[in-house]
Structures are given as structure tokens and as C-alpha cells.
Amino acid sequence: MHELLQQVFSGLAAGSIYASVALALVMIYRSTDLVNFAQGEMAMFSTYIAWTLVNAGLPFWGAFAITLVVSFLGGMLIERALIRPVENAPVLAAVVVTIALLLIFNSVAGWIYSYTVQDFPSPFPDRPVFGALITTRDLGVIAVTLIMLLLLFLFFRFTSTGLAMRAAAQNPASARLCGIRVGHMLAIGWGLAAAIGATAGIMVAPVLFLDPNMMGGVLLYAFAGALLGGITSPVGAVIGGLVVGVTENLVGTYLIASQLKLTVALALIVLVLVFKPNGLFGTAIVRRV
Amino acid sequence: MSPRTLTSWTLSAAGLLLAGGLAYAAGQYGPGASDAEIKLGNTMPYSGPASAYGAIGKAEVAYFNMINEQGGINGRRINFITRDDGYSPPKTVELVRKMVEEDQVLALFNTLGTPPNTAIQAYANDNKVPQLFVATGADKWNDPKNHPWTMGWQPSYRIEARIYGRYILANQPNAKIAVIYQNDDFGKDYLTGLREGLGAKADTMIVATKTYETTDPTVDSQIVSLQGSGADTLLTAATPKFAAQAIRKVFDIGWKPNHFLTNVSISVGAVMKPAGPEKGVGIISAGYLKEPTDPQWANTPEYEEWLEWMKKYNSAGNLADGNNVYGYSAAQTMVAVLRGCGDNLTRENVMKQAASIHDLKLPMLLPGIAVSTSATDFAPIDQMQLEKFDGTTWQLFGDVLSGSGS
Amino acid sequence: MEKGSAAVARTAVNVGRTDTMTASTWRWLATAVAIAIAAALPFWLRNYHVFELTMVMIYAIAVLGLNILTGFNGQISLGHGGFFAAGAYTAAILMHRYGVPYWATLAPAGLICFVLGVLFGLPALRFEGPYLALVTLAMALATPQLLKYFDTWTGGQQGINLVKPMPPAALGLNQDRWIYLIALLALLIAIRVAANMLNGRTGRAWVAIRDHPIAAAAMGIDTARYKTLAFGTSTLFTGVAGALSAFAVGYVSPESYSLFLSVSFLVGSAVGGISTIGGAIVGGFFIQFVPNFANDISDAAPWAIYGLAMLVCMYTMPHGVVGTIKPVLMHLVQRAAAARGNRAQRSG
Question: What's the structural domain count of chain B?
């Protein structure tokens, strides 16, 4: 029983990592209808920026704040300069652009910072609680993820920019007619996603250790989690991420052939999707003829 | 003819023969070798999940640069061609074919990875190209009968794991052992070697095993699971990032097993420090190279020499990264072989020299360990020494052990 | 008057007919010349380049499979690396364990991948867009694990070393040239089959499903059947390509078929032109050569250069090279034909 609880909590800790990246994925999907395959690498790059600042002597929260701002601006810039040209192109072109960004960020990070694993400080002390079931640091990651989710929810629900963004995503033509600058909304969407990604990366680096390939595996699980929860739903993204984390852990523990952990975990996710093809909380896309 | 004329004729004839013989001997060249240069080929994963090992390739480039600046090998500069195969065997095949057929290299040196090397082994042997000092710890490179052109370098993973197995058998005969290993040839070899070291008791002593993939973000779940098996001994056959995670998790969940760690992940800078140095106290590993962060080597001439080389030729390299010691030492072995070839730089002779290394002591090898090969022994280094982490560095203990044979 | 206009009409028809005959003769001639050059190339080039071109053709067949599924039928797949691996391992296991001669492994490889594709396509019917991407991605990720697990069959992480196909002694070819010619034949057959299917009823159904699934269903097209058929056909092509790659490289291992391979196929598709057949060949060239060029340009960050190349291609030619050039060419050809028609009319 104790082991089961430990695995569940371990899973929640890992899952909160996936959840935070999944949030960023959902953010971009909602604003630009694209899956951003470069999300993980952008987050990793932001984390390296934070790492450079911390190493230069800045206090953690100062570096964190600066990194958020830089990432936000960077995300906006990427949308404007790199995604805008393929806005009206076939979807596949945009997908290839995000894949290209993934390769570029990964390669440049490896070039600048080398591939050696680096230490990254955590703002949370690392003490085991609840009888070594979970550490305060893991709790911190979960807390930050939930706070981000809450902030996003409030943003979309109660601010005019949030409303404008939802309108721009749902129906750009009508939104333009209402005076909403759709281009700006898209850019802001990417900026926010980049900032969320940066937060995710900074939270995650103390756990996973910082290296250019840090986010590779995470992105896959985050993708699975985001889709499991419904690619259009931020709440779904978080729940999906947590579920993926716990499932992965439990499968790994109780499956006899633990070398097939990834396969079985993915198979389970696909199974769920077969019954709910738009994810647990996603909205079905109703197409009118 | 007067005796004098005969003598002078004979002498001249002899002189001519001698000169001709010398001229013939001076510079026997196979592909990739000439009066001016020697071409070596190499593939490394400079990208992808194994990219941390790319530092080895960079270190070797730096070392050959130094040799070239010091006059090269018998006056010839080394042209070291290294390319990125991303640890993908089809890419390795393509790049090696290019190096052999287009670039015409004399030999392949320190190509990295078991699958990549397996992919090119047949090609190298069929085309009689030396595949020297491959950068993998798999056992199968020591097979001169079937693959006379392929040779390993480092002590194999199985040798290392056998050493751990025998140590456990001798010191903790009732241990219950858990193993976490990477789900590939590297990890599996450790499990195999451990079983060989434990002999008949392997099945009863190993109580749990768990694997992980390089795409897994963490190994926390596996560690928790292994603790649940009731084991009191743990072998971690994991690459640096995952080893650090494992060490930390073991400590965090309050588990205190006898912890054995693969030599691949003993770097203080890349593994022990990020994991938390206090969390690694008591971990046992085995080494054959000097750890660059070990203070006991700090003021020795060999270390100073290495440090100077790092600063001058490999300044982008991390001083705490053991890969830089590995690349340095492997390159020294290659240089020794090439020097031994003299002016006979054919592929056959390179292979012959590589198979006749007698007790070569490299500066950064642990004292007591040397490189030795023979026509039947293609495992250049097969000795290791156990070491224990004390919170700051790895303390060597016990004798230099040989892991060969079972 | 009647006679005059009838004469004009007849001339116009005659002119039209001559034009069609000339156009198709030209096409036939051009294709024959291209094939002849392609078949002769291995005798002019060094072995290494022959090997490279063999890989180009193998990737082209794989990308053609993906084009059928994603380009013509609109179902995205991030998992084709897995089917490529399935084909490669089928051939390898048959050759290694059962001593089947290499040329007899292509059909089983294709067939097994067809069945796998259909089995995969059935649940895939439920999914669209990013969800389908995830499901196919799961396939790509699971493949190396499954290959490592069933190691009695697959050789596990050690992989399987193959004896590469030997040419019949009478022909006097070396191994590289022989495998090149096999790959060339396979590519030509693949293009022919694909062209037939795509220009025929099946292809039209696929395109209809891609563009307007509801309208297609309303018109009586059995979407489920055609979509699964698309999947199966697509994986058949990619599986055969995989088997050919086993011949060319001589070694299969789980490490050879990573997620990056699936992504490369998608990139090759997009760069070449996802809804074209010729684009597959361009894609094959891109996948094979651009990473090497990138490595030559920059030692430090080659994949960044590769990414930049991808970006440049997507910005300048969002429909892919062939996808962009083909409409332009067609336009020019039509203009030329119209101009000739006008001239004929005026003179007639």
C-alpha cells in the first residue's frame, strides 16, 4: 500500500511537469490552432537564459522574472517573424516550421552551453514530507502549475484581452470586424505560451537536470497529456498531464514486462482516446455543412 | 680485374642495394597515409540523446591538434575526420563508407556506440580497414579470430559488472540485489556481467530489476519500485543524467542500500554534484582513469600536463568532465600505435602494431593499470580498481583487479 | 459559311488532337530518358555515391507512402518510421532466421505492413488532426521498445546483421550497383502503382474524403473503407522501403528507427510537396543530403542549419517544391498550347 501511494505521489510530481508544458501547448493551440512541437525546446532555452542569469549572480526570483519577460517577448517575436509567413499556408507547412524551430533551438543550445548536464537551483527547499512520500520541491512544482492554471483561467474569463483572444481564435474574420487586432492576439498567445513554458522549464530543471535534451521526453508526455485532457482545454491539459504521470508510474511498477512501460502507457492513452476522441475535457469540433 | 676494383664494385653495388632497400622501405603507404599526413576516421554522436559523449570527439580533435603542433607523428600531421552520426546505425554506415571510400582514411578510430559499431563491423572487416579502439564497453570487440580488424579499448561493462558481482559475493554473500539499467546493450551488459560475477547464486541474489528508456524524463518510479522489493543492494547501470536522478531519489526516499554505480557515471562534476554530494556518500564504483576532480592527483605532473593541454587546446571542454580524460587517453593510445608503425603506414601494419602493445602506461590511467594487447587479446584495458565516494571525491581502495574470465 | 466554320472546327479539333498526342509523346519520351539515365548512373558514379542514391530512392518510396496517406487522404502520420522498421525487420528476420532469399522478402514485408496499416487505420478512423498525430506518434515511440522486447525474434538490442544481396554472377555487377537497380525498379513500380491509384477512382475518393468528408460520404463514398485502404497502401509502400533499406545498410537495430526518422519522413514530404508523387523524390533527396550539407557548413550546430533549410523551403514554397513548381509548369504548358492553338486557328 505504501508503495502504491509512493508511486502515485511520484506520478503526480512527474505529472505536474508534463501538465505545465501541456498548458503551454494548449495555449498555443487555442490561439493559433497549431501544435507547437518546439514548445519543449523553447522552454529549455528559456531555462538556460535563467541559468545564465543566476550564474551571473542574480537572485533566483529576479532571474525568474527577467526570464519570463524575455520569453514572452521572444514568443511574440517568433510568432510574428516565423509563424506569420505560414499562417495561410497548409497546416503541414506550419508543423514543419515548428519542427524546424525545435531543431534550431536544440542545436543552438548545445552549441552555446554544451551537452554536459548542469545543476539548476530550486526556489523550494528539498525536504521530504508526508513520510517521504513527496518532497517540498515536488509540492512546489505542483503548486506553481496550479497557480498558472488559475491565472490563465482568470485571464481568459475576466479580462478583455482574454476575451479578445478567445474571439480571435474562434473566428478571426468576425473578430476583425469587431475591431480586434487578430495579429496582436496571436502574438500575445505565443508570448504567453512561451512564458508558461519558461516557468515550466525553470520548475523542472532542478528535478530533471538541465541539458539541451532535458525537454525531449517531457514534450512527448506533455503532448499525450494535453490531448488526453482535450487540446482545447487548459484544465484538461493539467489533469491530462497528471494522469499521464501517474499512469506511467503505475504501469512501470505493476507491469511484469516493465521494459514495455512506455508502450503500454501510450496504449492506455490511445484506448481512452478511442472512447473519447476529443480528450476527456475537450470540445468536439462540430462541422457544419 | 684488380682486387681493388672488385672491392669498389662490390661496395658500390652493396651501397646501391642498401640505398634502394632503404628508399623502398622509407614510406610504405596504405590509403590515407603519405609523407605529409595520416588520415583517421571517426563518428560520434554530436547530436541526439547521446550527445554528451560528443565531448570525447572534441577532446580527441584537441589532442591531435597538439600532436600536430609538436611536429606530428614522425613528421606527418594527423588529419582527424570526425562526423556526427547521431547514434543512428544507418547514418554511421553511410559516414564510415564515405570516410573509407571517399576520404580514404587509414583507419577508423574510437567510433562510438555499440549499435553503430556493430553496423560497420562487417564492412570494416570485409574491406580490411582497422576499426580501432571502439568507444563502447561491449564485450564482443575482443574477437580477433572472427573480426581481426576490430578492437575495443576500455574495460568492458561486463568485466566491470563481474568485478562488482565478485565483490558482493565475497563481502555480502547474503545480499539481495536490485538492478536499474538502461534498456539497451549498455544496460543489459551490466546485468549479464553481474550475473556472471555472482555465478550460481545469481538467480537467488538478484531480487528485482527495472529498466528505463532514454526518452523517460525521470527514473524516480523505478527507484521507488526497487526499494519496494526489499533489496539491500543496488546496481545502477545508468548514463550520467539518470544516474544523478537515481542517486538523489534513493536518498530522498530514505533507502540506504549498498549502492554500486557504473563507471560511465562517476563524474563528480556531471553526476555526483548535481545529485547532491552528500547523497552519494558510500557509493562504490570502479575506475581505470583518473577522475579530474580527485584532489589526490591535483599537483602530480601527469595531471598538470593534462590540465595544461585542456587550457591550451580544449578550452571549451569542462574540467570536471571525465570524457576529456577518456578522449585524451584514447588518443594517446592511437598516437602510440601510429608512432610504432614508423614509416610503414599500411592498414595491415597499423593493425599489427595495435595488436602488439606491451604494457603501455598512459599518464591518466590509474597507477597499476596499463594497455596491453596481443594477437589473441584484443581487450587493451581490462583492469579496474574499486573506489568509494566520500562526499568530495572517489577514494580508491583494494587492489587493481582484472575482470577477465569468469 | 457552314463549310468554313466546320472546317475551322475540324482544324481546331485536329490541332487539339495533335497537341494531346505531342504532349503525351513528349511525356513518354522524357520519362524514358529519365529512367535510362537513372539506370545508367551507377556505372558512372563511385560506389559511395551509388549507395547514397540508393538511400535517396528508398526514402522516396517511404515518403511516397506518407504522401498517399497525409497528402492525398489528409490523415497525418508521425509514425511512419515504425512501419519502415516493420518492413526492415520482416525482411531481416526472414533472411536471417529462415534463410529466405532477399528478393522473396519484399512481398511479405509489404504484405505484413499492409495488414498492420489496415489494423492501425481502423481505430485511426476515430481521430483527427492532433489526436491522430498523437496516436501515430505512439506507434513511432513504441516501435523501438517492442523491437527490444521481443528479442528472440528481433535480436533485441544487438540487432540483426545481414548478408547483403549478391548480384547474379552473370551480370558482373558489384553489390552496390545491384541493390541500386533493385531500388530503382521498386521506385518505378511504386510510382506507377501510386499514379494509377491516385488518378483513378480510389485516388479521387481519397481526395474527396480529404477535402470534404461529409460531402464525400453524402455522395456514397465509403469513407471508412477508403481511409483504411489509404492507411494500408501507405504503410505497404513504406514497409517495402524499409525492407530495401535492410538490404542496403545490411544491419537492423532498434536504434536505427527512432522518432527522428518519422519526423524526417514528414519533413521530406512537406518539402517535396505532400500531395504530389514527384515530391517524394525531392523529399528523398532532402532527407539524405541536406543533413550532410548542414554538417559541412557548420560543425558546431549542424541541425540548426538543417532547421534553417527547412524554414527557407517552407517560406518560399509552402506547398513543397513540386507542389509549387507543378502548377507553374502546367500554367506555362497550357499557355503554350493555347498560343499554338490560336496560331493554328488564325492560319487555318
Answer: 2
